[in-house]
Amino acid sequence: MLKVLNNNKTIINLSIANKEGTLRNQNMHVALISKGLFPFLSKPDCVLNHLDLEGIQIGNQGIVALSEAICQNTSLISLNLANNKLQSQGGATAIAKIISKCHQIQTLNISRNRLENKGMAIVLAAYTNDNTNDR
Q1: Residue 91: per-residue pLDDT
Q2: 112 to each of 5, 34, 63, 85, 122, how far by Cα in Å?
Q3: Which of 41, 67, 68, 111 is most open to solvent, judged by the fewest CB atoms within 10 Å of its CB?
């Protein structure tokens, strides 16, 4: 997978999801994201329309780092971050950053995380502020 990400600049759909909950080697997913996905998304000519990371348990630290790379990408229109152990502290702020900076994203799934009311308020405020600025 790392070779594919390093050797391409266009991948329309990329799923690294763990929807069945059978994640056996979380370290493999972390390496794939940090060594492959971050550099790929950061390429100035990268084209990636749909990214599915459901259930890979990236947590707050992972989404904070991933948000940096996502915000550099202008082609991403669908992002699935469901079931990733994202929490109010850190995770919600990173999601808010994605919402406010990545205007091209049309679909964002953050279901089944641990954002709680405080985190959802942060996310909703970013969405509300962004819509008042006319996307």
Answers
A1: 94
A2: 28, 23, 15, 8, 16
A3: 111
The pTM for the full model equals: 0.86
List Cα–Cα distances, 119 to 34, 88, 90, in angstroms. 25, 4, 9
Q: Could you list the beta-strand ranges (E) of the chain.
A: 13-15, 50-52, 78-80, 107-109
Give the E-state strand segments of 16-98 in sequence order: 50-52, 78-80
Pick the CATH number of 26-132 from 3.80.10.10, 2.60.40.10, 1.10.600.10, 3.90.180.10: 3.80.10.10
Would you mind telling me the total number of residues written for the chain in this entry? 135
Distance CA 59, CA 34 (A): 13
